[in-house]
Specification:
Elements (H helix, E strand, L loop, with lengths): L1 H18 L19 H9 L4 E3 L1 H4 L11 E6 L3 H12 L3 H16 L9 E4 L4 H7 L3 H13 L2 E2 L4 E3 L11 H7 L4 E3 L9 E8 L4 H12 L4 E8 L8
């Protein structure tokens, strides 16, 4: 009987895909891959990557606070395809796409930097109110994909957001720093003691969120913080 139900379920799935074929999350054309992107969009995503280590002194002079992160790395320039994907992940419940993007980011990161294997991954947290509204934390989904590919431990509840900050979108750098003051807290600090933390976010514009999180993590005993964002809106590499 169980086998009969499984076969019926499989037939239903095939029939559903025939009537409503899966579409690429970016171009919305028919996608016969098991992954969320068609071959063309996946190729574009990979070839448009530009793993960048951002210069701390030159690029973050606008932050009113001293820098607590050791490095900020982004994987893609803020171009149309990555903007579209991040929007889908953040606002359209595309968790599968988020996990997939995280694995691609992990693959690209490995090609550019050496990891010891002792690092831990921590996502930038959402406040519990924002979490209930959205249903999940997009940074956690990205971080889970990274952790899977890099084979690193992920701690999703070590860093928590205790202050329901207003949106950073329309704030300047100074306002963003003030908005994030005392916004985060560390639980179970022993898990990050003397550790290198890969701090994951979807985007980093001014670096204020990454810096505030890094300050909290270092105060709790983390040794080194590497901020890792998928992209950085407004950044133009002038080198």
């Amino acid at each position: 009987m169980r086998l009969l139900f499984k076969n019926a379920e499989r037939l239903f799935s095939y029939g559903y895909d025939f009537v409503f074929p899966p579409l690429c999350f970016v171009c919305e054309k028919r996608n016969n891959n098991l992954q969320p992107l068609c071959d063309g969009c996946l190729e574009q995503l990979i070839h448009s990557s530009q793993v960048t280590v951002h210069d701390r002194k030159r690029e973050f002079r606008h932050l009113s606070e001293s820098l607590s992160f050791n490095r900020l790395i982004t994987i893609w320039p803020y171009i149309k395809i990555i903007e579209s994907i991040i929007h889908q992940i953040k606002y359209n419940q595309r968790k599968k796409m988020g996990f997939f993007l995280g694995t691609i980011a992990g693959r690209l990161l490995c090609q550019q930097m050496q990891l010891s294997g002792d690092e831990v991954i921590i996502p930038v947290p959402l406040h519990k109110i924002r979490y209930r509204e959205r249903g999940y934390n997009q940074s956690s989904v990205l971080a889970a994909g990274l952790a899977r590919y890099l084979k690193l431990t992920i701690y999703e509840k070590v860093l928590v957001r205790i202050k329901n900050t207003r949106s950073q979108t329309m704030l300047n750098a100074e306002q963003r720093c003030a908005n994030l003051n005392n916004a985060f807290e560390v639980q179970e600090a022993d898990k990050i003691h003397s550790k290198t933390v890969l701090l994951v976010d979807d985007v980093s514009t001014t670096g204020a969120t990454i810096n505030s999180c890094s300050d909290t993590l270092k105060s709790a005993g983390a040794e080194k913080i590497i901020g890792l964002a998928m992209s950085r809106p407004g950044f133009r590499d002038k080198r």
